[in-house]
Amino acid sequence: MSALLHISASPRGAASESLALARTFLEAFEETHPDVPVTTFDLWDGSLPQFGAAAVAGKMAVFAGEEPTGESAVAWRSAEATFRRVDAADRYLFSVPMWNAGVPYVLKQLIDVISQPGMLFSFDPEKGYTGLLTGKKAAVVYTSAVYGPGRGPAFGQDFQATFFTDWLRWAGINDVTEIHLRPDLAAPDVEAHRELAHAQARDAGKLF
What we know:
CATH class: Alpha Beta
Radius of gyration: 18 Å
Number of helices: 6
Strand order of the largest sheet: 2-1-3-6-7
């Protein structure tokens, strides 16, 4: 059954620009797709497992064609459960604020937890990686308060959208819609930029 999963990487609640755009997207989506269930995975809710030494050992065991054991098996099962939570949907909405030119660390943590062999990707020594999340699509809300195209290096660089959209495609998701809100906070037309981004989110939600 078709389902949409909203994955939120912002901890700012009502103050979050990315979450506000996500709400606009979801309102439009639910109006035009009333039969598609929508759930939210708040990456700050404490349910995202760590991926430390035991989990890495489990991953390397799987790479070697072995079964993880002991603590490694427990950590590996947590990674599997998180992957299944994500894989259960066929449509994704990601709300991604820019942090220090990149993505919030909880989003990188999710990526490191679920990017596992036999789950999210396969690997061939001659052909390399193949993403396994095929047949799915994603919409991504990217926001930033300082960085913006054409503002110069003193205002930051974009390792946010370049990194995350590349990961989606590496994972096998090639149908990607991007919505950007990067207003110049020193300019008088901030609200116009915000209104345009919300209009784009609304249109994208209707057609998603």
